[in-house]
Amino acid sequence: MPKFENPLIVQSDRTLLLDVHAPQADQCRNALIPFAELVRSPEHLHTYQITPLSLWNASSAGFTSAQALQVLEDFSRYEIPQAVKVWIQDTQDRFGKLRLVQAPCEYAPDGTKEEYLYLVTTSPYVFKEIEANPFACKQLVPCQYVMPEDQDPSIVLSEEEKKFCFRLLLVDRGTVKQNLLKLGWPVKDDVPLADGEPLEISFKPVTEAGREFDTRDYQKNAAQALIGNMGPGTGFGTIVLPCGAGKTIVGMEIMTRLKTNTLILTTNITAVHQWIDELVDKTTLTRDQISEYTGENKSISPVTVATYQILTWRPEKTGPYPHFSLFRKNNWGLVIYDEVHMLPAPVFRVAAELQAVRRVGLTATLVREDGCEGHVFSLVGPKRYDVPWKELERSKWIAQAECIEVRFPMPQDREIEYAVASSREKHRIACENPVKIQIVRQLVAKYPQDKIIVIGQFLSQLNEIAKNLEAPIITGKTPNSVRDDLYRDFREGKIKVLVVSKVANFAIDLPDASIAIQVSGTFGSRQEEAQRLGRILRPKERTARFFTLISRNTVEEEFGSNRQKFLAEQGYSYRIVRYEDEGSLDQLDEPLALEGCAL
User: Fold this and answer.
1) Which of 81, 87, 92, 341 has the smallest number of CB atoms closer than 10 Å to its CB?
2) Comparing 444 with 537, which gets the higher pLDDT?
3) How far apart are CA 469 and CA 440, in angstroms?
4) Residue 364 carries which DSSP code?
5) What mean pLDDT is predicted for residues 235-248?
6) Measured between alpha carbons, how far is 25 from 27 in angstroms, rounded to an integer?
7) Under 8 Å between Cβ of 119 and 164
8) Confidence class of residue 595 from pLDDT cuts 50, 70 and 90?
9) From the centroid of its chain, how far is CA 346?
10) What is the Rg, in whole angstroms, of the alpha carbon atoms belonging to the chain?
11) Predicted TM-score (pTM) of this structure
12) 148-163: per-residue pLDDT in tens?
């Protein structure tokens, strides 16, 4: 193919412009996923950015600078600026310049054991830079390397690394990695991980429900990418898979391979119950071997499932977190962070104490609205496995989905109120546009055969929608037992329409939902968009539809554009429907014309 037809333009500021209408645009998008991040996604040209963190994530998964440059060469329309080539090589080469390795244990005069690690480098320049930086060397002490008696034979140090060596306390492992990442020096952690208490666990060939069961190839590959050869530098990291692709199964696959006591952290009590039900249904574990550690029940077993909320609860605002002790109450050999992009900041602190344990973060997107992706990289682990959403859709492992934005004007009696409101008030006024209730009612009537979830941010709006539809509603105030009953009734078809607040954004299994209607959201959260779309992606015969209702000429359009970046990153196309009256929805019966409507 002539170069001028290639879809990619590589710019000297390390941004990449992808022409979505060019041949091979889809192949190029998938090839960029390992090492570039989507920044903007208007109709014709998508902008990607290569960042140090995106390159280091790629390095940790074995993706080299040579492979990144080859992707750019294969798809670039013009010559790649030399400065970009050099920067990619130099930046990716930083990964592995610093390594953490074992150090001998020492004993204080009172007989207490003090455990240390070594931070080593082959570069005197890097060593001096860290030594001269008071922030970086706060927990580091220059020292002479001494071979520990229990040195893992697979860890080999060069003579240069033995010369340029810092010592640090084992408990400072995570903090040091975080500090050095901020300086632009990612640490390769080659310290062997501790084995936890053994636990016999395997998959059943037939589930409790009587269905034959086997893990899918990509689920096995994801588990293998994390576990590696069980040697230094393996056994920790993040796995990125779409909602509906079976991240829970990946977690269980890792459990069956490691066969050790496991702590699972997730977002809410409903998700806790779903994990327990899945473990009992598909593995040889009994209910007696599994406990929940939540606000309702606090018990500990070989497998314990807890919520982030209980860990970060404390009786006083500035007091200690009493439930952090859970991390030390069992000889855990594996920690699973479900929806790791939601990991609360306080857990980052205690995560430093768990650096010696095998750990995996599961997520549909590494986007964090607080910009703390680097914390996930340092403390839980770098991205080890990622599969394009569209690739799984083509393989029918997740549902085919159509994304539709319905735009409509504000009522005249609200226009002046909106015009004089503050920025935050503008968002709420636009979100609570009463026209949305009318459109929701019409969409529900248009698709009587579908199972529909209506999801939003503002409770007064959701309560009014639920009343209009005569549908049940789930909010943060709904008791957990009632939530579980409603989710079960929805799965069993007793309920066709369910109204949910943002409590249903995460880790909720609604396999038969085929339509989601998003009436309001958290400003422009791409993370939220990923989760809400994921609610309807369980495999099914019919095409799933994801509707977003947008008040025209308001801040909702701007926020909607930001959320759509996520859809574009995954290769989804969408259509915009301009709503004037009920007849406007007839456009939805027409086939989606892909040209000109890709994000």
Assistant:
1) 81
2) 444
3) 9
4) S
5) 88
6) 6
7) no
8) very low
9) 18
10) 25
11) 0.79
12) 876 667 778 888 899 9
Whether residue 447 has pLDDT greater than 80: yes
pLDDT tens readout for residues 499-515: 998 776 665 666 678 89
Question: Which alpha helices (DSSP H) does 283-394 contain, by range?
Answer: 308-311, 345-351, 373-375, 389-394
Tokens 């193919």 -> residue: 1
Closest C-alpha among 73, 95, 94 to residue 82: 73
Furthest C-alpha separation in the chain: 83
CB 536 within 8 A of CB 544: yes
pLDDT band at residue 593 under the 50/70/90 scheme: very low
Tell me which DSSP letter residue 589 carries: G
Q: At how many degrees (to 10) do helices 423-431 and 555-569 cross?
A: 70
Q: With CA atoms as reference, report the closest residue to 177 among 234, 139, 233.
A: 139
Q: How far apart are CA 182 and CA 186, in angstroms?
A: 8
**Helices 52-60 and 65-75 sit at what angle, rounded to 10 degrees?**
110
DSSP labels, 285-300: --GGGEEEESSS-B--
* Higher local confidence (pLDDT), 373 or 495: 495
**What distance in Å separates the CA atoms of residue 368 and residue 526, rounded to the nearest whole number?**
9
Residues 6+ apart with CB under 8 A from 381: 60, 236, 237, 238, 359, 360, 361
pLDDT band at 218 (very low <50, low <70, confident <90, very high): very high
Report which secondary-structure segment, H or E, holds 576.
strand 574-578
Nearest 5°: the CA angle 26, 407, 391 is 20
d(CA 457, CA 531): 14
402: pLDDT confidence band, cut at 50, 70 and 90? Answer: confident
Q: Which of 265, 428, 270 minimizes the C-alpha distance to 335?
A: 265
> Residue 559 and residue 552: Cα distance in Å, rounded?
12
pLDDT score recorded for residue 8: 95
Angle at the Cα of 73 from the Cα atoms of 69 and 77, rounded to 5 degrees: 135
As a three-state string, the secondary structure of 414-478 is: HHHHHHCCCHHHHHHHHHCCCHHHHHHHHHHHHCCCCCEEEECCCHHHHHHHHHHHCCCEECCCC
Tokens of 89: 């090589």
3-class DSSP state for residue 162?
Answer: helix
Which residue matches tokens 């009590």? Answer: 269
Phi, psi (deg, nearest 5) at residue 112: -75, 145
Q: Please count the helices (runs of H) and the strands (runs of E) in the chain.
A: 21, 25
- Is pLDDT above 70 for 210? yes
538 three-state secondary structure? coil
Closest CA relative to residue 75, chosen from 39, 56, 42, 48: 48
